[in-house]
Specification:
single chain, alpha+beta, Immunoglobulin-like, Neutral Protease, domain 2, 5-stranded mixed sheet, 33 strands, binds (3S)-3,7-diaminoheptanoic acid, binds zinc ion, metalloprotease, Peptidase_M1, metallopeptidase activity
């Protein structure tokens, strides 16, 4: 087999032919579905008269190809390397094809496949070519009419994009529905669902007074889990009208829940298909975190209707155009509903741990890559999260109002078109008059910029001078980096805790301002500043960078107490904890006693005693930096020292502050019925953090509190928190019965069983890996289902660092075995799961050798493009 080749952005050519109308007929059959396509094709005036027509297709059994009703002879076309090439075609014509596909054996879950009792599709980015011959590229947009024929009994429900225009009965117990989608769309937004489904209906009146029917389709047993998604959808529709002036554009909006799904969900026009884990919820089965995640994903997919569907991407290199903007939109939506600082803290934590790690690893890529082998590998944190940070920076640079004018103009100007990142940024430049040339580098340069700041105080002149330098490290294929345009939001906190007025060159900037760092190094002089002012830098994480500043511990405690910016109060606490933990790691490495810095205990004591009106933020402040974030700071990562030191820090905080944690735990108990409201979620979050410290202290009394909370069985948030503490404790006599009871009780609910899997395999105890192997044989586990794989294998390899990195190499071997199997079944998931194995560069030599050995073993297989691309990069 030939080695997969990379595709380059610089090779982009516009399509030679456009398709005005696409007519599809599906005759559904689990093993042999017949797909008939009629494409109304016209040559673009700019392309050559002799231009060949090129269509994509993968795994199709072709039965007929005809032009204007005339079947083609074998000499009149070629099929090679997943392409159908017809050299001579008229200027305008109808191309008819008829193919057979096999949805049942489609384990890649791309194209048309079978999930439980239903047929469903996933076409983004290149799944449509597994359905029929087609120019499967986002810059070919057509109006679709789709007829779905199915068995009346087994597929009573037949759905596709747009509005149903005709339905009827056919011989042999078959029936059909014809759907018409009036909005031109690329093939990746096509969707089809058929099966035995039930539906919950609601409606929404748009700002112009149009009535939109809302439908959520699920298997009958899930009807009771749809309320939250429906409520979230309506909130999202209202928000998009208010915040962006965007109205929904069809009479019907449908969501379908599917059990086997590679991602969270998909924004198909008028027919969003969701991973059931990203849509189904109720208090008994779903945690607060998942309620919020569902709210965010429902909104995200809905928002794509404008940022993605009405205005789409010219080519897949522009993926962040729709994803970055839409993530920014869903983040803004969520923070308008829940605690805004906590939402920011969560998003930044994700950026700083996982995205920074991606940016520093072998698969680092720019937000707009310039080449790829397999585009499915680029649905990454860099494209999504860093892409969103870039849009956020733009919105700060322009100010909210100008940004809104820019987005209005963007939607209006490019409606119905397939565009590039430049079109978005240039529109923003146009409405604001800003020069965004340098800013564009954010899309082109991979790697996380490192900011190094220092200050100097002149007591005589009462001047505070801040110097900030920037440097972006080299990444694979990009040795030299240019300075970026970095917005640094900041303030100064005076020694008495008051904000300092910021005066630069005699001009006041209030107490909070944005510095524009554009050079490799720049300096700012603040006048009229008293001695002892502490800089609060990068407020709200105003740019996706690492920042170093030599804050003393006293200065960090000061910021923790007084900073006006909630996000930076949290960040100061994290930095303070990090210093303490790093000190303990050093002791761990010297085999000495690990003593926790008294200043951190003092800081926590202050946090626990001080009244606060934002309990959700307080809960976040009480969580120590994650192992992943600690590892991100180390030049050489010592897995065991990180785990040991962090664990010891938690235990010592618990020992010193037991009564404080206990009273927080009791003060945040709830008497009213469960609701996923921000107030209740804040209480539960705080209560459960407190409980985790109490249990860490090791007193039986605390474990009994956890058991009581588990047995009270009030809601999944509290049950899962307690179960995790029991299952992760050394007390098998408490953990095992709880795990057993939970597994029996929820055996019928696969989404809860996923939580059960994940809880067990994230145990820090040495038997975690053996549990993974044991649970892989559990009847509820299936390697073909991505949710199960993520719950069991993903949770273990990504959230159980000590055990995944076992020195006997068993963790690596287990992951490699799974990847080898998934490579054959589901390459997209295989390429995602392999990632932890590629992050070996900063580990000790022994582990590096073991990990590379497993990567070599994988490389010797017959690899999919997906896995090939990742392994090649990792071993380069
Ligand atoms: N646009 C989809 C991505 C699906 C791609 C899967 N290979 C999900 C989203 O971002 O909304
Ligand atoms: Zn998206």
């Amino acid at each position: 087999m030939a080695e997969p080749q990379a595709i380059y952005l610089s090779d982009y050519r516009p399509p030679a032919y456009r398709i005005d109308k696409t007519e599809l007929t599906f005759d559904l059959d689990p093993q042999a579905t017949r797909v008939r396509a009629r494409l109304h094709v016209t040559r673009h005036p700019e392309s050559k008269a002799q231009a060949a027509l090129t269509l994509h297709g993968h795994g199709l059994t072709t039965e007929r190809i005809a032009i204007d009703g005339q079947a083609l002879l074998e000499s009149e076309y070629r099929i090679e390397a997943d392409q159908l090439i017809i050299d001579r075609v008229p200027e305008t014509f109808v191309l008819e094809t008829e193919v057979i596909i096999d949805p049942t054996s489609n384990t890649a879950l791309e194209g048309l496949y079978v999930s439980g009792p239903m047929f469903c599709t996933q076409c983004e980015p290149e799944g449509f070519r597994r359905i029929t011959w087609y120019p499967d590229r986002p810059d070919v947009m057509a109006v679709f009419t789709t007829t779905v024929i199915g068995d009346r009994q087994r597929q009573p429900v037949l759905l596709s994009n747009g509005n149903p225009i005709e339905r009827g009965e056919l011989p042999d117990g078959r029936h059909f529905v014809t759907w018409e989608d009036p909005h031109p769309k690329p093939a990746y937004l096509f969707a089809l669902v058929a099966g035995s489904l039930e539906c919950v209906r609601d409606s929404f009146t748009t700002m112009s007074g149009r009535e939109v029917a809302l439908e959520i389709w699920v298997e009958a047993q899930n009807l009771e889990k749809t309320d939250w998604a429906m409520a979230s959808l309506k909130r999202a529709m209202t928000w998009d009208e208010e915040a962006y002036g965007r109205e929904y554009d069809l009479d019907l909006f449908m969501i379908v829940a599917v059990d086997d799904f590679n991602m969270g969900a998909m924004e198909n026009k008028g027919l969003n298909i969701f991973n059931s884990a990203a849509v189904l919820a109720n208090p008994q089965t779903t945690t607060d975190a998942t309620f919020q995640r569902i709210e965010g994903i429902v909104a995200h997919e809905y928002f794509h209707n404008w940022s993605g569907n009405r205005v789409t991407c010219r080519d897949w290199f522009q993926l962040a155009l729709k994803e970055g903007f839409t993530v920014f939109r869903d983040q803004s939506f969520s923070s308008s509903i829940n605690s805004a600082p906590v939402k920011r803290i969560e998003d930044v934590a994700l950026m700083r741990t996982l995205q920074f790690a991606e940016d520093a690893g072998p698969t680092a890529h720019p937000v707009r890559p310039d080449h790829f082998i397999e585009i499915s590998n680029f649905y990454t944190l860099t494209i999504y999260e860093k892409g969103a940070e870039i849009v956020r920076m733009l919105s700060h640079l322009l100010g909210e109002e100008t940004f809104r004018r820019g987005s209005d103009l963007y939607f209006e100007r490019f409606d119905g078109q397939a565009v590039r990142v430049e079109d978005f940024v240039e529109t923003m430049a146009e409405v604001s008059g800003e020069d965004l040339t340098q800013f564009m580098r954010w899309y082109a340069q991979a790697g996380t910029p490192q900011l190094t700041a220092r200050s100097d105080y002149d007591a005589e002149k009462r001047r505070f001078t801040l110097t900030i330098a920037q440097q972006t490290p080299p990444t694979p294929g990009q040795e030299d980096k240019q300075p970026l345009h970095v917005p640094v939001r900041m303030g100064l906190m005076a020694a008495d805790g008051q904000p300092v007025e910021l005066i630069i060159n005699g001009e006041s900037h209030g107490t909070d301002t944005v510095l524009h760092l554009r050079e490799a190094e720049q300096q700012w002089v603040f006048e009229n500043v008293d001695e002892g002012a502490v800089p609060s830098l990068l407020r709200g994480f105003s740019a996706p960078v690492r920042l170093e500043y030599p804050w003393s511990r006293d200065e960090l405690s000061h910021l923790m107490r007084f900073d006006e910016d909630g996000f930076n109060r949290w960040d100061a606490t994290q930095r303070l904890a990090l210093i303490a933990i790093e000190e303990m790691m050093a002791a761990h490495q010297r085999n000495e006693l690990m003593a926790l810095d008294a200043r951190l205990i003092e800081a926590f004591s202050y946090l626990l005693r001080e009244p606060t009106d934002d309990r959700a933020v307080l809960a976040e402040m009480l969580r120590l930096p994650s192992e992943a974030w600690i590892a991100e700071q180390q030049r050489r990562v010592d897995i065991d020292a990180i785990h040991g030191a962090r664990r010891a820090a938690i235990e010592q905080l618990a020992d010193n502050l037991f009564p404080e944690f206990e009273s927080v735990y009791h003060a945040n108990q709830q008497s009213e019925a469960y609701a996923p409201t921000p107030e209740q979620m804040a209480s539960r979050s705080l209560k459960n953090v407190a409980l985790s410290y109490l249990v860490a202290n090791g007193e039986v009394e605390a474990l009994n509190m956890a058991r009581a909370q588990y047995e009270a069985d009030d809601n999944m948030t509290d049950v899962r928190a307690a179960l995790t503490l029991l299952a992760h404790s050394d007390r098998a006599d408490l953990g095992d019965p709880a795990i057993r009871a939970f597994g029996e009780r929820w055996a019928h609910d696969s989404l809860v069983m996923d939580q059960w899997f994940a809880t067990q395999v994230t145990r820090p105890q040495a038997d975690a890996l053996e549990r993974v192997r044991f649970l892989m044989d559990h009847p509820a586990f299936s390697i073909k289902n991505p949710n199960r794989v993520r719950a069991l294998i993903g949770a273990f390899t990504q959230q159980n660092r000590v055990n995944f990195h076992r020195l006997d190499g068993e963790g690596y071997r287990l992951l490699a075995d799974v990847v080898i199997e998934l490579n054959r079944l589901n390459p997209e998931i295989a390429a995602r799961m392999i990632v932890p194995l590629t992050r070996y560069h900063r580990l000790d030599e022994k582990r590096q050798a073991l990990m590379r050995g497993e990567l070599e073993r994988i490389r010797a297989e017959n690899l999919s493009r997906n896995v090939f691309e990742v392994v090649e990069k990792a071993l380069a």
